[in-house]
Design a protein that fits this description.
This protein is about 35% helix and about 20% strand. The chain is an alpha/beta fold and about 500 residues long.
Length: about 500
C-alpha cells in the first residue's frame, strides 16, 4: 500500500511517499519553488512524487479543527476564518480530492522519530514551538503502540521562547534559530543574566510555564542587568545565555522523560528544537541510545503521519530521498577543483530530506585553508563569524575530534576539534565543529571522494556547506546548479 504523507500550510511544506516500509520519495516544497521555508505545496513537487507511482491513501500531519480551536483561543481570527485554508479544500488544486487520515501534530513527530529509529521500544521526546495545542510531549512506544505519558500545552513553550529571543536579536524567527545557536559561542555566560531571563519569562517551580504568551515575539524585552547598547557583543552575550537556558531546560525534560518512561534506555527525539545540535551533544553524552531523524521539524512530519498510519518501522537507510539528478558521483571533477584550492559545488543524485546538505547538494573546499572561511561566507552572503561543517571519514573522526558519539552521519552533534589551528575554516570560536561522519553505507560516492582527497593530501575530511545562498533554498535540480555556477562563478558538477 502506498501512503502519501503531507505537511503544509504552516512552514517548510514537505511530502513523503511510502510503499509499505520503503520510502519512495520525500521532498521539500522550497526546493521546487525557490521560496525559503515555503509553507505551500507546488505542482512540480507533486508531479515528482507521482513518478514513483499512484498513492492509495493520503494523510495530513495534524488535526485542522483542533488547531483552529487553539487559534480561536489565541485571537488569531484571520487564521480561523481564512477561506481555503482547510486541508481538504486546499489539496483539491493538486488533484487530491480526499484526505483519508488526520494524525495529531505531536503524534506525527513522535511517529517520525520512532518508526525511523533502530529501536523496537523507546521513550520519545518531542519539543517544538507549537502543534495544535501541545508544545512538549513524552511518549512510551513499543511495537506499534504509543502511550503519551506527559505533555505541556500552548502558550507554554520552550520552542516559542527560543524563537521569540531569535526575533529579539534581529533574526528571523522560525528560520534563523541556528544563527542564534552559532552566535552563542561568541558571548559570555553570566549567571546574573540567566537568572534575569528566567525571572522575566519563566514561572519558578512549574515545569515549562511561561509568564506571557510569546507567540508574537518579545521585541520589547530588554535586560535591566545588561541593557541593549546596540552592539554585536550584547547580542552575542544574550544569545549565549539563551542557549544555556535552552540546554538546561532540555536536559530537565530528558530527566522528566526518564522518570515517566522508566521501561527503556532508548530515546527518540523530534520536533524543531531537536535541530539544536549543541544541545544534542549534551543529551547524547547522558543518553547514548539516542536517535534523531535528520528532518526532525515539521517537514519530517510528512514522514511521521504516513508511518503512523502504516503502523510499523520503515526502512530508513539514508536521507537521500528527494529530486534525483542522474549520473555518477563526480569524484574526478570535484577533486581537480579541491586540489587547486577552489570552492566547488556538487549537485548529484537524490536531494537530502532535511535542512542540511550531506554531500549531494553541497559546497566543498579544503578545510585547511586560512582564507577559505571568509571566501565561502562571502559567496554565501553569511555573517563572517560563522564557520562551516567538516565531513570526515568515520574511521578517522576520533583522530581529529572529541566525538560525543561514534556516528554523526546527519550532522546533528558538535565536537571539540583537537587541532583547531590546523583546520580553521571548520572550527567555531569555541573550538567546536558540527561534524558529519561519512561511511560507505552513508553515501558511497561522497565517501570515495573524501577518501581520494585523504590519499592525495593526508587530510581525511572536506569542508561542507549547503549549495545555496543565505535566505535561499538548497539547489534542487541540474538547472539550478547551472544557474548557481553562472551567478556565483563556482563550478558545480
Amino acid at each position: 500500500m502506498k501512503i502519501l504523507g503531507i505537511n503544509a500550510l504552516n512552514h517548510d511544506a514537505c511530502i513523503t511517499l511510502l510503499d509499505g516500509k520503503e520510502i519512495l520519495f520525500a521532498g521539500h516544497a522550497e526546493r521546487y519553488s525557490g521560496i525559503k521555508n515555503d509553507h505551500l505545496l507546488n505542482q512540480e513537487m507533486i508531479s515528482d512524487a507521482k513518478r514513483y507511482g499512484k498513492w492509495d491513501k493520503v494523510v495530513w500531519f495534524e488535526k485542522p479543527w483542533l488547531k483552529k480551536s487553539r487559534q480561536l483561543w489565541a485571537g488569531q481570527y484571520g487564521e480561523v476564518f481564512q477561506s481555503g485554508n482547510l486541508p481538504s479544500q486546499y489539496l483539491k488544486q493538486f488533484g487530491i480530492d480526499k484526505i483519508d487520515h488526520y494524525v495529531g501534530h505531536h503524534e506525527s513527530h513522535a511517529a517520525a522519530s520512532y518508526y525511523s529509529s533502530p529501536y523496537d521500544e523507546a521513550c520519545i521526546i518531542t519539543i517544538d514551538a507549537i502543534g495544535e495545542w501541545e508544545t512538549l510531549t513524552i511518549w512510551y512506544a513499543w511495537g506499534s503502540h504509543f502511550e503519551k505519558r506527559y505533555s505541556v500545552n500552548y502558550p507554554n513553550s520552550l520552542g516559542l521562547w527560543y524563537s521569540a529571543m531569535t526575533q529579539r536579536l534581529g533574526l528571523k524567527p522560525q528560520e534563523d534559530e541556528y544563527i542564534l545557536m552559532g552566535m552563542a559561542a561568541w558571548g559570555k555566560l553570566d549567571r546574573n543574566i540567566m537568572n534575569e531571563l528566567y525571572d522575566d519569562f519563566f514561572v519558578k517551580g512549574l515545569d515549562l510555564k511561561l509568564k506571557e504568551n510569546l507567540h508574537r515575539g518579545c521585541l520589547g524585552w530588554d535586560s535591566l542587568y545588561y541593557p541593549d547598547d546596540g552592539s554585536d557583543e550584547w547580542k552575542f552575550t544574550i544569545a549565549a545565555n539563551v542557549q544555556a537556558i535552552c540546554e538546561e531546560e532540555i536536559l530537565k525534560i530528558f530527566e522528566k522523560a526518564k522518570e515517566v518512561v522508566p521501561e527503556t534506555d532508548n530515546y527518540c527525539y523530534g520536533g524543531g528544537v531537536a535541530l539544536n545540535c549543541v544541545a544534542n551533544s549534551l543529551i547524547v553524552e547522558k543518553y547514548p541510545n539516542l536517535w534523531i531523524l535528520p528532518n526532525p521539524g515539521d517537514g519530517g512530519s510528512s514522514l511521521g503521519c504516513a508511518s503512523s498510519i502504516l503502523g510499523e518501522h520503515i526502512n530508513f537507510n539514508n536521507c537521500f530521498l528527494g529530486y534525483d539528478i542522474k549520473g555518477e558521483y563526480p569524484i574526478k571533477e570535484v577533486m581537480d577543483e579541491l586540489l587547486k584550492g577552489n570552492i566547488v559545488g556538487v549537485a548529484n543524485g537524490r536531494a537530502e530530506f532535511g535542512p542540511r546538505a550531506l554531500g549531494n547538494r553541497s559546497l566543498l573546499a579544503d578545510p585547511r585553508g586560512t582564507n577559505i572561511k571568509d571566501q565561502m561566507n562571502e559567496i554565501k552572503n553569511r555573517q563572517k563569524f560563522r564557520p562551516f561543517a567538516p565531513s570526515v571519514l568515520e574511521e578517522h573522526a576520533h583522530e581529529i575530534f572529541e566525538m560525543p558519539t561514534k556516528k554523526s552521519q546527519f550532522m546533528q552533534y558538535v565536537a571539540k576539534c583537537k587541532y583547531p589551528d590546523k583546520y580553521p575554516a571548520i572550527c567555531h570560536v569555541d573550538g567546536t565543529s558540527r561534524v558529519q561522519t561519512v561511511s560507505k553505507d552513508d553515501n558511497i560516492g561522497y565517501y570515495n571522494l573524501i577518501k581520494k582527497f585523504y590519499e592525495e593530501t593526508g587530510c581525511p575530511m572536506v569542508l561542507n556547506t549547503s549549495l545555496n545562498i543565505k535566505g535561499q533554498p538548497i539547489v534542487n535540480s541540474y538547472q539550478d546548479g547551472v544557474l548557481f555556477e553562472k551567478k556565483y562563478n563556482v563550478k558545480v558538477f
